[in-house]
Design a protein that fits this description.
The complex is a heterodimer.
Chain A: H1 4-29, E1 34-35, E2 39-44, H2 49-53, E3 60-69, E4 73-80, H3 81-91, H4 104-129, E5 133-135, E6 139-143, H5 145-150, E7 161-171, E8 174-184, H6 186-195
Antiparallel strand pairs in A: 1-7, 2-7, 3-4, 3-5, 3-6, 4-8, 7-8
Helix pairs in contact in A: 1-4, 3-4
Chain B: H1 3-11, E1 17-21, E2 27-30, H2 32-38, H3 42-45, H4 59-69, E3 74-76, H5 78-81, E4 101-110, E5 113-123, H6 125-174, H7 183-213, E6 222-225, H8 226-244, E7 247-252, E8 258-261, H9 263-280, E9 285-292, E10 298-305, H10 312-315, H11 338-348, E11 352-358, E12 362-370
Parallel strand pairs in B: 7-9
Antiparallel strand pairs in B: 1-2, 1-5, 3-4, 4-5, 6-8, 9-10, 10-12, 11-12
Helix pairs in contact in B: 6-7, 7-11, 8-9, 9-11
Classes of the chains: A alpha+beta, B alpha+beta.
């Protein structure tokens, strides 16, 4: 779908976006938050469940934003529910006790985290293409992976391709695996590939 | 109708503060909710820049307004920022200096160009207070729980030393270390030793329970044989079974049943289950069956007795600490901790203990432990 060079360039785009997001989160929380260099996989949306099921299980908390502009699609931040609850608690000065669920305040915190992370990464597309990318209001869902994947939308009626971005958020006492799915149609993927100049 | 007017119209229907600013951050809409919450009239803010119209904004809020005007969706959660603009909390929430708020800022575009931002502010004070109360209650409950476990552990340690001294001195006296002992005195000394051993057993139960309850019990996995563990447990309860005239039997699905587990804990579970069965069975038999579970991943140790059985109403609570079934059991020795400790150990090892029973027929306790 994308050449090796294009994948490297795309990976760097997300790397920069994630580091911008980490800097914003560190500033908000007053504690150092770092992210690992992301790993990328591109696949057809119809094949997305298997690789993701190897990474996450059980109940998943997601923040979901539809984006539009020259590149359009659906962006989702996924974190296992219990880990999302621990992340939200730690970022707001609580303890990362095992287990637990996101309460209403925790959900709001996760929405803000998702908005920052997705916004920072997707604005990279806008900068690259030199066109604005607009995002919808972020929404949070807590559901199974299958239900969440069934709701993905692309720039047409149904997304055809998905970029799976894996990273790890590290705080002083906790490392939480987080994943992004950027689901786009063939038109948007072609535009990304062409703009990266090496597709 | 312009987009900003449409948003303002929709905003008037919401139980939220709605501010609309144009591309220069000049307020074009300030809804009734905000008039009530801040006491600032619409005429005092509309037509003026939001950051210089007398409304006290959180520093983050000012940055967020600029970001939204430039095209970003911004979410400000209460947990990170506390408040967006200065407003009084509702009556009854005086513990907060300001109304606690979460906000969402949406960019407005008119034919592709930045036209301002719509800001939606939600009063979350009541919810924040409720969540804080809940966290406090949970914290207190956890502290009380930890205090209870620490008390048990401390008390048990304090008791063990004098109990050891009582048993030790009784042994020495019985052995004639402090002068000649008559047969009658020897019999009384044996009783002292017996009671001291019983007390030590109870204290050990309390210590085990306190460690499991506090999550401080550690697991030491070793390669062992379920048949050997079962035989050792049988040997430990055999004297009491013989004394009561009970038949003590065992059945193994294979002569050798290897497992990797914490042998000390499994042996203790079996001794507790067999000890209970022998203790509560007046006549008949106590039997231990060891088998592999259907999926082959665990071993099941079932203790069957011909005791009085447990009433269905009591069956659900027998694994709770200090619960000992019907009042008629109150006269039997023990703390009511044996089953709680056994289930705690089993769960620590990834298994469980379950019970079925029929009044006047007998009971079956099954410990399932991963192999």
């Amino acid at each position: 779908m994308l050449s090796e060079n294009a994948m490297d360039a795309l990976s760097e785009l997300f790397n920069v976006g994630l580091h911008r997001a980490a800097a914003s989160l560190s500033s908000i929380t007053g504690q150092p938050i770092v992210v690992d260099r992301p790993k990328l996989v591109i696949c057809e949306v119809s094949d997305i469940e298997r690789p993701l099921a190897e990474l996450v299980g059980g109940e998943i908390a997601t923040v979901h934003q539809i984006f539009g502009g020259a590149v359009a699609g659906d962006a989702v931040l996924l974190i296992e529910h219990e880990k999302a609850a621990a992340l939200a608690r730690l970022m707001t000065g609580g303890e990362a006790a095992a287990g637990g669920r996101l309460d209403q305040s925790g959900r709001e915190v996760l929405v803000e985290i998702g908005n920052i992370v997705l916004g920072a990464c997707l604005s990279g597309f806008g900068d690259m293409l030199k066109v604005p990318v607009s995002l919808s209001v972020p929404r949070i869902h807590i559901d199974s992976l299958r239900t969440i994947l069934a709701s993905l939308v692309g720039d047409g009626e149904v997304a055809q391709f998905a970029v799976i971005v894996s990273t790890r958020f590290r705080l002083s006492q906790l490392a939480v695996d987080g994943y992004m799915i950027i689901a786009v149609g063939a038109k948007s993927l072609n535009l990304i590939s062409t703009t990266l100049g090496v597709g | 109708m312009h987009l900003a007017e449409a948003v303002a119209e929709i905003g008037s229907l919401l139980d939220a503060g709605v501010v609309i600013v144009d591309a220069d951050a000049i307020v074009t809409h300030w809804n009734d909710w905000l008039v009530r919450a801040t006491g600032i009239q619409r005429a005092d803010v509309v037509g003026r820049r939001l950051c210089s119209c007398g409304v006290a904004l959180n520093t983050t809020a000012m940055v967020a307004v600029d970001q939204a005007i430039q095209g970003s969706v911004v979410v400000l959660s209460h947990a990170f920022h506390g408040w967006f603009l200065d407003a009084r909390p509702a009556a009854g929430f005086d513990r907060y200096e300001r109304m606690q708020q979460s906000a969402r800022l949406l960019p407005l575009r008119d034919e592709g160009t930045a036209a301002g931002a719509a800001i939606f502010i939600e009063d979350v004070t009541e919810r924040v207070a409720r969540e804080a109360d809940l966290r406090t209650a949970v914290g207190l409950a956890r502290a009380a729980e930890a205090g209870k476990s620490q008390f048990f552990a401390g008390m048990s340690h304090e008791l063990r030393t004098p109990i050891g001294a009582i048993a030790g001195y009784a042994d020495l006296m019985e052995a004639g270390m402090f002068g000649p002992v008559t047969e009658e005195q020897r019999e009384r000394l044996r009783r002292i030793t017996g009671v001291a051993q019983h007390l030590e057993h109870i204290v050990n139960d309390i210590l085990s329970f306190a460690r499991v309850d506090a999550g401080r019990e550690e697991v030491e996995l070793v390669d062992t044989d379920a048949v050997v563990l079962a035989q050792e447990a049988i040997a430990a309860v055999e004297p009491l079974a013989v004394q009561k005239g009970l038949k003590l039997a065992s059945r193994y699905a294979a002569p050798v049943m290897p497992m990797r587990t914490d042998a000390v804990k499994v042996r203790q579970i079996l001794i507790n289950l067999l000890g209970n069965a022998v203790k509560f069975t007046a006549k008949g038999s106590v039997e231990l069956e060891v088998a592999r579970t259907g999926d082959g991943r665990s071993l099941s140790f079932s203790v069957l007795d011909t005791g009085p059985g447990i009433a269905p109403a009591d069956l659900g609570a027998i694994f709770d600490p200090f619960v000992r079934g019907t009042p008629r059991n109150a006269s039997r020795p023990g703390t009511g901790l044996g089953l709680a400790v056994s289930r705690g150990f089993a769960r620590l090892l990834g298994g469980d203990v379950a019970a079925t029973s029929e009044l006047a027929i007998g009971s079956r306790f099954t410990a399932t432990i991963p192999a």
